[in-house]
Amino acid sequence: QVQVVESGGGLVQAGGSLRLSCTASGLTFAHYDMGWFRQSPGKEREGFSCISRNGDRVTYADSVKGRFTISQDNDKNTLYLQMNSLKPEDTAMYYCAAEPGFLSSDFVLSSPSIVSNWGQGTQVTVSS
């Protein structure tokens, strides 16, 4: 059974940094695309970053490009998200996704509807 668990969320002031982690079990990490999605109250869940299973393709939404960095450690089955220069509009529940298919095509993130495995989410709140 696949399990995906996020950690590292919290409250931070605007301009600050946070590092999220996502540990996956019950799967072969190197056979999955991994990604980060987020959802604010009243809004749809949206993907903003993903990394291909062999790590050779990284995709970012324009909203986070240059501020967030996605990385993974296949030996630890762990995905990371380093978030710098955080803004109040980054406030959301952040979800990790593990997908045996592809989470991006031509550097465009896929819809969350295709994701097979989700974590429970970790809250990120950025105060102004």
Mind explaining what this structure looks like?
With 128 residues, the chain is mainly beta. The strands form three sheets. Strands 2, 4, 5, 6, 9, 12 and 13 form a seven-stranded mixed β-sheet that branches. A four-stranded antiparallel β-sheet has the order 1-3-8-7, with no helix packed on it. The radius of gyration is 13 Å and the shape is globular. The mean pLDDT is 95.
Identify the notable features of this structure and list them briefly:
mainly beta, seven-stranded mixed sheet
SSE diagram, text form:
Blueprint lengths: L2 E5 L2 E4 L4 E8 L7 E7 L6 E6 L6 E3 L7 E6 L4 E6 L8 E8 L4 E2 L2 E2 L7 E2 L3 E6 L1
Parallel strand pairs: 2-13
Antiparallel strand pairs: 1-3, 3-8, 4-5, 4-9, 5-6, 7-8, 9-12, 9-13, 10-11
Structural class: mainly beta
- Poorly predicted residue ranges: none
- Which series of helices and strands comes N to C? EEEEEEEEEEEEE
The radius of gyration over CA amounts to: 13 Å
Report the helical percentage.
Answer: under 10%
- Please give the alpha-carbon distance between the first and last residues: 40 Å
Strand content: over 45%
What is the residue-mean pLDDT, rounded to a whole number? 95
Given the structure, what is the number of helices? 0
Outline type? globular
Largest sheet: 7 strands, mixed
Strands, total number: 13
